[in-house]
Amino acid sequence: MVAQDAHAHSAPQGFIRKYIFSLDHKVIGLQYFFLALTAVFVGMFLSLLMRIHMIWPGVSLPLVGEIKPETYLSLLTMHGTIMVFFVLTTAPQGGFGNYVLPIQIGAPDMAFPVLNMLSFWTTFVGFVVIIAAFFVSGGAPLHGWTGYPPLSALQSAGPGEGLGADLWITSIAIFCVASLMGALNFITTTLDLRAKGMTMMRMPLTVWSWFITAILGLLAFGVLLSAGILLLMDRNLGTSFYVPLVVVNGQVLGHKGGSPLLWQHLFWFFGHPEVYIAILPGMGVASQVLSTLARKPIFGYKAMVYAMLGIGFLGFMVWGHHMFMSGMSPYSAFAFSILTMCIGVPSAIKTFNWLGTLYKGRIRFHTPMLYAIGFVSLFVSGGLSGPFLAQPVLDIQLHDTYFVVGHFHLIMGVAAIFGIFAATYYWFPKMFGRMMNETLGRIHFFITLAGTYAIFMPMHYLGMAGQTRRYSQFTEVAYQAKLIPLQTFITVAAIITISAQIIFVINLFWSMFKGPKASDNPWEATTLEWTTTTPPPHDNFGGVTPVVYHGPYEYGVPGAPRDFVMQNDPATVSAH
Amino acid sequence: MATYTPSTPIGSAQLGRGGAPPVPPRGGGDDGNSSGSPNYGARLRRARLGLICAVATVCMVFISLTSAYVVRQGLPTFDDASRNYVRDWGEVRLPFLLLAINTVLLLVSSITIEAARRDAARQAALAPVKAIPGISLGDEKRFPWLGITVVLGLGFLLGQWLAWGELHNRGFYINTNPNSSFVFLLTATHGVHLAGGIIALLWAAITSLLRKPIEARRIVIDVTAWYWHFMAFLWIYIFALLAFAR
User: Fold this and answer.
1) In this complex, is the C-beta atom of B11 within 8 Å of any C-beta atom belonging to chain A?
2) Which residues 6+ apart lie within 8 Å of A211 measured at CB?
3) Which of A201, A433, B117, B202 has its Cα between 20 and 30 A from that of A314?
4) 8 Å CB contact of A5 and B19
């Protein structure tokens, strides 16, 4: 049986085997979660330093002292890299995917538990390496999270471009390897370890989203890995893949004939799917929570699955829309532009299906529901600026302005974070056996929602007014200085929103130990993780292998004794 | 009329909505074995599935390197002397004989590992029979296919190392020109992946020392064998790329 086989490792006894080098997907999921939680606070702290510097340029700040323009670029680079890789990729997939996916498909563990452990600890090493970049001579790199050469490819290009940049690339490479191991594990688990009766089209949408994310990761991270190796060679072995003839401080460097655009193509071939790697799990969680707490089947289950597949597929064909500025042929720009706008179709299908799910539902406004609705809201407002930027003529105007900053923070940053919050509040009872505080959760939600809109909406106007991104201060440029009051407003909003996250942390840790005990199925949900005890035993189902008879979202089935039918409910609801 | 009948037999499960039409329970695998012993058939299938994913990833790595190769090859560079755009791809005189010998080594090793794979599969199939007390299948002569494969694999890596030395002798270093950069890059990347295969084979050898059951060893050998074939194919592809797309 599955139970004995995949779970050949018995429940561990010692502290180290149980909590540190654990093979249990649930422990590994929590390890990922807490790694991402650490990373998100580092990333937020960096953004806070940037925001404060922007408004009060002369102020000396804690830990970094006076911020010079290059320090600002270092903060920007590290904020972006840490957030994208170690938060948005780590928490939704590594964290919740690891914890929930095997239970939702009725498996006792992931397909390759040892690989799973290796994958986490490799990610951890990657995080340590990137943090180390702060402390080496020259400091952290300043080439942005996209690492465009020649800036990223030359040791002499700037203060952080020595050892700091090498550590940055090494960290990304390590992260790639870890993600590839994780993706391989997710795909094999989903395809091979489903319980009896759990057909692909009975999988919860969360499982679909993690599965598709894993496929994207499997195909995308290898490309970034090779791009990174080429970059390391350009930096350290004197090759010229990316670097043309360059003169730095009057000195001709040894490189010749390379193309910075080659990096951009390779990077964005990874980079665009990466956006969906961050957001797809959020879509899955939103679907799950909306359906569960609106007490209605998800509207258009199959359409949701095909829309996610469509988004994943199209995601590999639009990387050029990040490069309209590069002087690409207008014909290619046109093709990339059309394909990019095509993504609007599956995205709209998903949005309308979410609204359709809510329509006439008996909505229970618990905190996870609030965050799921918030996710939809942010997905719409962040997504609508996408078709603007998908058009080369507009993109060339807006590309290096705050419009883009506002766009991607709403859609990829905060929407994905709202997905993480929804997942945290939703699965917390299963993970820790206790409920989170609802009042604190609501306060946290409303401040965060209002705060994120207050931060990122004005950025669109700043962008249209011509405020350039990546500048450390605007006091020196007359037309930009006029926009500083709006930047001040954003900074104040950021300080308030970041402070509000303390409420979340208090709620998280207080509830972990002092919250009211949770029942096995506090949300009255239907998927398999709610059929087992809270928290689940080592092999997830206590030696029993579940058998599935129902689809994942059977709420309000006419004739059923309750308003929900669990997936493993052997009883039949006859046709009507 | 909608009716709810709680005691309907399991087999006739039906769906309300939100999912697919009813199907007989399947998926998940491991169906055939209920004895409680590890199900090696299911494990083998799972390991092969994992291997397919790994191969897909390695393919993506080499596809991206190939696209970089093609793009870099066609890039025009401004030449100061002639005030014109020129291609700076450059030439590399590959040590063809040495590389051909290496290719033969790798292809032979692909055959030996296939023999090892089939041998392990046979052993695993016979294991339950042999486990019966009093049954003997006679003293078979075991040919050390795995050992030979490891030796051939190491021979291939050594040959590649010699090829690098020969390239250095001929004056081609990693930063001599873009062409030579790619020669070193592609051979090194392939070598690293092949070394991974050798480590897996050594692991299989260690498990045999640890007296793990033949079925468990067979999985390692089987998956490594497919990986090894893929590495042989990949090398021929790389060799062809370097030889013909210069």
Assistant:
1) no
2) A186, A187, A190, A203
3) A201
4) no
Distance from CA of A217 to the nearest CA of B (A): 9
Tokens of A271: 């980079």
CA A298, A300, A305, A310 torsion-angle sign: negative
pLDDT digit string (tens) for B48-63? 999 999 999 999 999 9
DSSP bridge pairs for A401: A468
Which of A237, A551, A571 is nearest residue B15 as measured by Cβ atoms?
A551
* pLDDT for position A286: 97
Burial class (CB in 10 A: 0-12, 13-18, 19+), A574: middle
A200 neighbourhood in chain B, CB within 8 Å = 20, 27
Joined tokens for residue B8: 């309907």
What confidence tier does B21 reach under pLDDT thresholds 50, 70, 90?
Answer: very low
CB contact under 8 A, B57 and A180: yes
Q: Looking at beta carbons, which residues of chain A come within 8 Å of B178? A: 239-241, 257-258
The ipTM assigned to this model is: 0.92
Q: What is the Cα–Cα distance from A87 to B105, expressed in whole angstroms?
A: 46
Distance between CA atoms of A507 and A436, rounded to whole angstroms?
6
- Contact state of B18 with A298 under an 8 Å Cβ cutoff: yes
How far, in Å, are A83, A119, A122, A417, A431 from residue A182 at the CA level? 19, 6, 10, 21, 21
Distance CA A46, CA A430 (A): 32
10-residue averages of pLDDT along chain A (576 residues): 46 80 94 97 95 88 82 95 97 96 95 96 97 93 94 90 95 97 97 94 96 97 96 94 86 86 96 96 97 96 97 96 92 95 96 96 96 97 94 93 96 96 97 96 97 97 94 87 94 97 97 94 95 92 91 91 90 53
The reported pLDDT for the residue numbered A10 is: 67
Q: A251-252 and A572-573 as β-strands: parallel, antiparallel, unpaired? A: unpaired
Provide the token pair at A366: 């618990």
At residue A268, the pLDDT reads: 97
Say how far apart CA A130 and CA A117 lie, in whole Å.
20
Contacts of B190 in chain A (CB under 8 A): none
Domains of chain B: 42-133+141-244 (1.20.120.80)
Q: What's the pLDDT score for residue A572?
A: 64
Residues 98 through 127 of chain B touching chain A, CB cutoff 8 Å: none
pLDDT of residue A573: 54
| pTM assigned to the model | 0.92
Structure tokens at A267: 């990077």
What would the 3-class secondary structure string for A406-473 be?
Answer: HHHHHHHHHHHHHHHHHHHHHHHHHHHCECCCHHHHHHHHHHHHHHHHHHHHHHHHHHHCCCECCCCC
Q: How confident is the model at residue B97 (pLDDT cuts 50, 70, 90)?
A: very high
CB contact under 8 A, A230 and B185: yes
Q: Apex CA A73: angle with CA A71 and CA A78, to 5°?
A: 95
| CATH 1.20.210.10 residue spans of chain A | 26-234, 312-513
Q: Give chain B's length.
A: 246
Residues 6 or more apart in contact with residue A327 via CB below 8 angstroms: none
Q: How far is B104 from chain A (nearest CA, A)?
A: 28
CATH number for the A26-234 domain, one of 1.10.10.10, 1.10.260.40, 1.20.210.10, 3.40.50.300? 1.20.210.10
CA nearest to B179, candidates A303, A278, A195, A257: A257
Q: Would you report the helix, strand and coil content of chain A in percent, each value rounded to 5?
A: 65, 5, 30
DSSP codes of every residue in A138-195: T-S--STTTT-TTGGG-GGGSGGGTHHHHHHHHHHHHHHHHHHHHHHHHHHHHHH-PP
- Which CATH architecture best describes the domain A312-513? Up-down Bundle (1.20)
